């Protein structure tokens, strides 16, 4: 274990690892103990009482954070020429089809989200092995395969994110930046947590949300009392 810097020691000392904090209190604290020179990302780690290996306990969903993520989301729209203007007007960073598929085959993945129309999925299939591991594969369930390409681009740019439980039973998601107000982080967190709550598998017995931790890119994790998240306090 590497030695802690002076700033890290100060930050760690402010967080009581034995305590569960109320959501707003935790959002204030994580801002206080973030010691980066850049605007750090603030993330939630939500441990669920599910077995992700069982198909009927797979938790995934889409949510639009009221204050966005604070990140610049680079969007590639893969579509036929009749949809290109719609995608560009909505704010897509890259618009095209065959030329971008060739670029991706050559190793280019300098984007965050790909949105496409259903008619081009056949062309995207062969690059699935490149896109899949990077979380870039368009999916009708997350609204990234759609005829309403302009609407989808706008939503992603405005803070729409998709999340899914990983193989250890945890949902990791970014809910903003350290520069956000504690109240904005709280509201984004509530939106995400309510969405996760709504995805509770019917087959699940026992506790669904086991723990919630909030942290920034370089801060200690703060343990949130799971009973307080649904009340905006």
Describe it.
- It is a single chain.
- By secondary structure, the chain is α/β, with parallel strands linked by helices.
- It has 8 helices and 9 strands.
- Strand 3, helix 3 and strand 4 form a beta-alpha-beta unit.
- The radius of gyration is 19 Å and the shape is globular.
- The mean pLDDT is 90.
Counting DSSP E segments of at least 2 residues, the number of strands comes to 9
Oligomer: single chain
Shape: globular
Major sheet size, sense and barrel closure = 4 strands, antiparallel
- Spell out the helices and strands N to C: HHEEEHEHEHHHEEHEE
Low-confidence stretches: none
> What percentage of amino acids are in beta strands?
15-25%
Number of helices: 8
Alpha-carbon distance between the two ends: 37 Å
Q: Give me the side-by-side strand order of the main sheet.
A: 7-1-8-9
Radius of gyration: 19 Å
How would you state the average pLDDT, rounded?
Answer: 90
Helix content: 25-40%
**Which class of secondary structure composition applies to the elements?**
alpha/beta
């Amino acid at each position: 274990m590497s030695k802690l810097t002076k700033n890290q020691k100060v930050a760690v000392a402010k967080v009581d690892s034995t305590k569960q904090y109320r959501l707003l209190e935790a959002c204030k604290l994580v801002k206080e103990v973030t010691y980066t020179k850049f605007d750090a990302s603030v993330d939630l780690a939500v441990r669920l009482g599910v077995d992700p290996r069982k198909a009927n306990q797979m938790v995934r969903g889409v949510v639009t954070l009221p204050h966005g993520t604070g990140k610049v989301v680079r969007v590639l729209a893969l579509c036929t020429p009749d949809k290109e203007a719609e995608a560009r007007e909505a704010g897509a960073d890259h618009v095209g089809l065959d030329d971008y598929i060739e670029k991706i085959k050559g190793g280019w993945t300098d984007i965050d989200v790909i949105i496409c129309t259903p008619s081009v999925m056949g062309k995207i299939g062969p690059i699935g092995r490149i896109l899949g591991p990077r979380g870039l594969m368009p999916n009708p369930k997350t609204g990234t395969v759609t005829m309403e390409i302009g609407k989808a681009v706008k939503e992603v740019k405005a803070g729409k994110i998709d999340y899914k439980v990983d193989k250890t039973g945890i949902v990791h998601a970014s809910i903003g930046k350290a520069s956000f107000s504690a109240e904005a982080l709280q509201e984004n967190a509530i939106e995400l947590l309510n969405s996760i709550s709504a995805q509770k598998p019917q087959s699940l017995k026992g506790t669904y949300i086991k723990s919630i931790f909030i942290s920034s890119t370089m801060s200690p994790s703060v343990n949130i009392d799971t009973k307080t998240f649904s009340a905006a306090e």
